[in-house]
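Appendix B: complex inputs.
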Amino acid sequence: MKEFTDVEFMICQAARLLEDNKTVFVGWGMPQVVALLAERLYTPNITQVFEFGAIGPQSRTPFLRGTMGGPQNTYRSLQWCSMGLAFSYAQVGYIDYGMLGAAQIDKYGNINSTMIGDDYERPKVRFPGSGGGNEVASYCWKTIIVMNHEKRRFVERCDFITSPGHVIDGKTREEYGLPKGTGPWRVVTSKAMFDFDEDTKVMRLIAVREGLSVDDVVSDMGFEPVIADDIQVLEPPTDEELRILREEIDPYGLVIKK
Amino acid sequence: MEVLDRGDAEFHFVDPDDFREYVRDRKNRNWEDKLMDESEAVKKFVSDGDYLAYDFSSLTRGPQSLIREIIRQRKKYLWICAKFTLLESVLLAGAGCIDKIDVGFLGFGPYIARKVQNGEVKVYDWSNGSITYRLIAGAMGVPFIPARDLLGTDTFKKSGAMAVKDPFTGKPVALLPALNPDVAIIHVQEADIYGNARVYGPTVATLETAMASKKVIISAERIVETIEFRKEPNMTIIPYYLVDAVVHAPFGAYPGGTQGYYEMDSEHYLMLSSIREEEDMQRYLEEYIYSVDSHEEFLEKRVGMKKLKELIKKAQILEGYR
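Resulting structure:
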């Protein structure tokens, strides 16, 4: 078995989650590489949707970071449209999956990509903000969040809620007016995979990376997740997945070597 | 309508009737030649204190030659609308042109991060979708648009949005205030001398931004005959009567790229995004913007034909983009 990085591990786990003949709203960076890998290996008929207004492109590889709206990523789209329309496809219910990264996440799947600290005006760390993450998390039927597993990122409540999870400050997302039946669906980390408990909507551990224990995962979190009765093992990346990632999709290592 | 919650941030707002009157009285429907250079267009149509919107991104089809001209003319107190912004906000902040940024995605390099921390530039958080829907409301001539963006988030609390009880369903819904910028700057692949314009590739909010704005400056890689639009009217993104000025600007998106024409200059971009210190920023502005008189001089003396040819050659994916 080849050696692989945490990022490669997460990309492969997330790519295996998508279903063929569905639509996926793809966020910037790692989600783009996940979608490319899935399309190459598992879901050839998936329709990628980008906030720039590229619908169903057959994006060229190798992947180039930073040019999401450029010809590389929008090549042979089915439709070029506006951002308002791209988000409206999601708002009206056409987009099955959303895929996002996060700086911080809380036990209900609320996402922070805005700032760290308790003073919004004088943050300790300032991130770029929502981008289109709010819309992806608000409207897609099933949102997949891909992020590094570190204690400081898994918190009781996010310092700033940029994008909504299942329960926000004691109220359900539906009570805030968000569409019924949507929300975070899976959280893929460098150590584990989570879904959300049906009753409490708290993040639930369902699988751990091969070689790790449940304790290894939970001790690295700032809140207590629900633990599923039957914990699966996350199989490592296959040689085929790694070859396609390294040779065809990201030979420059822009994402996978981070 | 019952107001359930409201964000506490300041926001730019224009009464739709005031905007309509502006359109009636000040937008010219004459078929007249609007071709002018950057310097004249910015002098005529960008004023200190304006709320300024631009279309597309720092990396692709952004109006960078117009941004540099705004800096060259040392405009002040601008409030910019940035769905996503990387180098524009950094340069405009470095040059002291902006006070405020409405932001969806702010590529926070170390330089602008400090400007924000120091309070020299104020950031208002929205999201790409909510800013775009605000422009759509501005383009529809209505005071707000109902949507479900921002609901249940801290972004909502730090925005100018409102949540109300929808009179139809009885469920909560967000009201996003319309956005009518004073001026829009938009780079396109092709325009005619009257301002008809089209783009190849996704459009982000090209038409909405132009329609919602009081003044519109278009820069174009190519100036084409009007008959080109009449041959393929479904490709016309912006009709001439929205437009105040047309600037012929080959490489107008440099150091970003324009689909079908040239790729972004990654080296220049990396050099710019690695700037941390004030004196390095001022040196950059002096060398690349203040010390040249025009976009042409910038291309000739600071970029050079060798680099430009290289970037044209790198744009290998042409199919569908021109």
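Chain A has one domain: 6-249.
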